[in-house]
Amino acid sequence: xxxxxxxxxxxxxxxxxxxxxxxxxxxxxxxxxxxxxxxxxxxxxxxxxxxxxxxxxxxxxxxxxxxxxxxxxxxxxxxxxxxxxxxxxxxxxxxxxxxxxxxxxxxxxxxxxxxxxxxxxxxxxxxxxxxxxxxxxxxxxxxxxxxxxxxxxxxxxxxxxxxxxxxxxxxxxxxxxxxxxxxxxxxxxxxxxxxxxxxxxxxxxxxxxxxxxx
Length: 214
Description:
The protein folds into 3 domains: 10-55, no CATH class; 59-158, no CATH class; 165-213, no CATH class. Helices cover 43% and strands 14% of the residues. It has 9 helices and 6 strands. The protein has helices at 44-49, 57-72, 77-90, 114-121, 150-158, 165-173, 179-186, 190-198, 201-213, and strands at 10-11, 14-22, 28-34, 39-43, 129-132, 145-148. It has a 4-stranded antiparallel beta sheet with strand order 1-2-3-4. The protein has a two-stranded antiparallel ribbon with strand order 5-6. A hairpin with a 2-residue loop joins β1 and β2. α2 (57-72) crosses α3 and α7 (179-186) crosses α8. The chain starts with 9 loop residues before the first strand and ends with a helix. The mean pLDDT is 80.
């Protein structure tokens, strides 16, 4: 059967330039140019069925319309989570910077762009917030983040680690810091934080020895 010449035709944002040949799966491919200027080889089947209608810029624009515009006026929770993540990691004036950015928690380069963040994570589901998982001490990046319920986040904190003398010393050195923030950092209760703040050095050493035996 004679091959159809698609040269010059438009499919969504693609303009077909020339026939490339068959790919390793035996499918016909055409060199195409997106309206945004991106060049790419696209299979004939994807062009004709509409499975591919741009290089991805159209999808990003849809995300922008749905999330970014509404997010900037406070209506989109996904934008709120992204903004809060950037504040606690990058803004020294943020209340939580001391337990995120100051401790070296970073945001991967690609997530400095909100649209890319949404493309990777999807929109924030109702009743969930951003959680670093499976490594609660790792960075904010693809593969180490999820949308989690409050219970899932609490379980993630409880799996952290036993406090050692250095961590307790950190708590004592940061007595002015709000108990809730320190509790979140170490995965313990605020009552525990108050106890550690009141300890003397000898008591700290005894407590560490007790933890080591458990």
